[in-house]
Amino acid sequence: MRTKIKVLAVFCLAIFGFMAFKPLDKKMVIIDAGHGGYDVGADIKGFEEKAITESVASKIKELNKNENVVIVLLRDGDTSMDLKERVFRINNLKPDLVISLHVSSTANEKPNGVGAYISSKKKFYDHSKEIAENIINKIAATGNLSKRYVSEAPFYILKNADFPMVHLEMGFLSNEKDRSYITTEKGQTEIAEKILESL
Ligand SMILES: [Zn+2]
């Protein structure tokens, strides 16, 4: 009998300990730095998209002070990762939110600003849209990038990752004013801070 009570006590303590340390109420946010490795993404005047997305991603992780939010970087470092693998990892991690980071580039140098894409799937539509709007509003409010729009897109990763997700386009590398902001430490830090404020 005593042994049974002891076993029960140890069991209760173990459960209590587990609950005290396991962050049950924490929100997991995956940051997917677009491109990487051999896939450089947009490449203009010596600036590569993969380096910008990687830098903003690591700043998001570094600057996160919110104890209720855990930031997970999908690709850590300059590694190649195809879309299928990204989706596989996302669906395995079961996050509360995914933010895919990209920058835009067009042949015409005029287009500029920050915009976002979300999936047209109904399941997480409202949640994804709300966060996307929030992020681009906050970034545009700094006055450094103009505000574009949130639109739906049939991108592979948006279609196949089964969680709320925002594909963010953090300005145009092909536009001189945007480029002079998104390629700087100050610009990348500010974008990371605004994303964190929107979570
Ligand atoms: Zn991209």
Please, could you describe this protein's structure?
There is one protein chain. The chain has 199 residues and is α/β, with parallel strands linked by helices. The chain contains seven helices and eight strands, in the order αβββαβαββαβαβαα. A six-stranded mixed beta sheet has the order 4-1-5-8-6-7. It has a two-stranded antiparallel sheet with strand order 2-3. The longest helix is centred in the first third of the chain and has 20 residues. The radius of gyration is 20 Å and the shape is globular. About 4% of the residues have low confidence. It binds zinc ion. Zinc ion binds next to loops.
| C-alpha end-to-end distance | 51 Å
What is the second-level CATH architecture?
3-Layer(aba) Sandwich
Strands ordered across the widest β-sheet: 4-1-5-8-6-7
Question: What characterizes the major β-sheet?
Answer: 6 strands, mixed
Tally of individual helices: 7
User: Total strand count, please?
Assistant: 8
Order of helices and strands: HEEEHEHEEHEHEHH
User: Radius of gyration, rounded?
Assistant: 20 Å
Domain count, please report it. 1
Output mean pLDDT.
91
The CATH homologous superfamily:
Zn-dependent exopeptidases
Structural class assignment:
alpha/beta
What fraction strand?
A: 15-25%
Shape verdict:
globular
Bound molecules: zinc ion
User: Can you tell me the CATH topology?
Assistant: Aminopeptidase
